[in-house]
From TrEMBL:
This is LLM class flavin-dependent oxidoreductase. Residues 1-22, 342-391 are annotated as: Disordered. One of its GO terms (cellular component) is cytosol. One of its GO terms (molecular function) is monooxygenase activity.
Length: 391
C-alpha cells in the first residue's frame, strides 16, 4: 500500500485570522510539504494542475516535481491531476519524460479532465468535448511514449508525421498512469482498456457511488485480460483533520470547512462527514474510517490525503502530517498489507515496470489474445462472416 498526501494549491484566506498567504508563500509551503512527506517516510507526494485563481498549483506540474526531486531521494512524485484535455499530448510526453530522468524514475501521473469550465476555451478547447478529448489525447500520449516516428491524425490537433518525442522515457519505460474521475464511467473504461490504474478522489461522493465506479473499473480490467478484477490497480483520495480528541478536531476544522472554495457554503460539516469519506476526529477514528474503504473499494494500492486545503496555515498542515506519518500511516500500512491477498499486486514503481517490460509483460491495450475482449471480437467477426456468406 502506498500512502501519501496531495495538494490542490489553493490560495485561500485563513478564516480564523483573516490573512491570505502570498503566492510565493504558498508555493514555498508546497515544497515544504513535499520535503516533510519524505522526512516522515510517506510513499507519495502529489500535486494538482490549475490555471486559474484561487489556485497556485503549477500550470506545469513537472516544474514543481523537478524542484522536489532535487530535494528528496525516495518519495514517489505524482500528479493529483494532469489535464489531459487542455494540455497538448506532445508537451505531456516530453515534459514528464524529462522529469522522470531527473527524478530517477520516481514519477507517475493521474490523468484528469479538471473541474473548471473556463479553462477549456483558454486553451482553444470545448468543454462539451471533454470525454472525446481525454480519449484521443491519451491515445496519442500512449503511443508517443512507446513508439518512435509516430504518424497520427485526429480530431483535435494538427497531424503528426514521423514525430519522435524526446527525451525518450527512462529505461524505455514510461511513467505509470492513473486515470482519475469521480463521476464519468468512460474514464475507468479507458483505464481498464490500457491496463492502467484508476484513481477515484474519494472526497465528494458517497461510498455507494465510489464503490460502483471502482467495481466497474475492476470488471472492465478483467474483461480486457489484464488480470482478475481484484488485481486491478486502484487509488483513492480522501481528506482528514485530526486532534487528540474528536471534539477539538471538529471545533478547529469547522471554520475552514465552512469557507473552503471546494465544498464550503453547502452541507454542514456533520452532514458532509456522514455522507462522504471526509474524516474529522482523532487519529484512531481516521484509522478506522480509512480501513473501512476496503469494504466498498476492495484492496487498493494507493491512498492519498488532501492536507492543505481551505486556508489551513502551514504550521497546522505540518502538524497534521506529523500525526499521519507517526500515528496513522504505520497502522494503515500494517493492516492493509496484512489483509491483502498474495495475488493482489503492489502499486507499480519504476523498478517493477522495468522488470515487467524486460519480461515482455507490458499490458496490451484492448486486451491480449487470450482476453475476453479479444475472444468477443473474434466471435463477432465469425458471426459477421457467417451472415455475409449466407446473405
Amino acid at each position: 500500500m502506498q500512502l501519501g498526501v496531495f495538494t490542490i494549491g489553493d490560495v485561500t484566506q485563513d478564516p480564523t485570522t483573516g490573512r491570505t498567504p502570498t503566492e510565493n508563500e504558498r508555493i514555498r509551503a508546497t515544497v515544504a510539504i513535499a520535503r516533510k512527506a519524505e522526512e516522515l517516510g510517506m510513499d507519495v507526494f502529489a500535486t494538482g494542475q490549475h490555471h486559474n485563481p484561487p489556485f497556485v498549483a503549477p500550470a506545469n506540474p513537472p516544474v514543481l516535481m523537478a524542484a522536489v526531486a532535487a530535494q528528496t531521494e525516495r518519495i514517489q512524485l505524482s500528479t493529483a491531476t494532469t489535464l489531459i484535455t487542455t494540455t497538448d499530448p506532445v508537451r505531456i510526453a516530453e515534459d514528464y519524460a524529462y522529469v522522470q530522468h531527473l527524478a530517477d524514475g520516481r514519477v507517475d501521473l493521474t490523468m484528469g479532465r479538471g473541474n473548471t469550465g473556463p479553462v477549456y476555451p483558454w486553451f482553444g478547447k470545448d468543454i462539451r468535448q471533454g470525454i472525446p478529448l481525454a480519449v484521443e489525447n491519451y491515445q496519442l500520449l500512449h503511443r508517443l511514449w512507446r513508439e518512435e516516428d509516430v504518424n497520427f491524425s485526429g480530431r483535435f490537433r494538427t497531424p503528426l508525421q514521423g514525430f519522435t518525442a524526446t527525451p525518450r522515457p527512462l529505461d524505455g519505460v514510461p511513467p505509470f498512469v492513473w486515470h482519475g474521475s469521480i463521476r464519468s464511467p468512460e474514464i475507468p473504461e479507458q483505464a481498464a482498456f490500457y491496463g492502467d490504474g484508476f484513481f477515484h478522489n474519494n472526497i465528494f461522493w458517497n461510498t455507494e457511488h465510489t464503490g460502483r465506479m471502482v467495481d466497474f473499473y475492476r470488471q472492465r480490467y478483467e474483461y480486457y485480460g489484464h488480470g482478475s478484477a481484484d488485481q486491478a490497480i486502484v487509488g483513492l483520495g480522501g481528506q482528514v483533520f485530526m486532534a487528540k480528541n474528536s471534539q477539538d478536531a471538529v471545533r478547529r476544522f469547522r471554520p475552514y470547512f465552512d469557507n473552503a472554495p471546494v465544498y464550503g457554503h453547502g452541507p454542514s460539516l456533520e452532514e458532509f462527514t456522514a455522507q462522504t469519506p471526509l474524516t474529522v476526529g482523532s487519529p484512531q477514528q481516521v484509522i478506522e474510517r480509512t480501513l473501512s474503504f476496503r469494504e466498498y473499494a476492495g484492496d487498493h494500492q494507493r491512498q492519498l490525503f488532501l492536507v492543505d486545503h481551505a486556508g489551513l496555515p502551514i504550521k497546522t498542515v505540518l502538524e497534521q502530517m506529523d500525526m499521519l506519518g507517526e500515528e496513522v500511516f504505520p497502522v494503515l500500512r500494517r493492516e492493509f498489507d496484512a489483509a491483502r491477498p498474495a495475488h493482489v499486486p503492489d502499486a507499480p514503481t519504476h523498478t517493477s515496470l522495468v522488470a515487467r517490460h524486460r519480461a515482455g509483460q507490458d499490458p496490451v491495450p484492448g486486451g491480449g489474445p487470450d482476453s475476453r475482449a479479444a475472444k468477443d471480437r473474434v466471435a463477432k467477426a465469425r458471426v459477421t462472416a457467417t451472415q455475409d456468406a449466407t446473405a
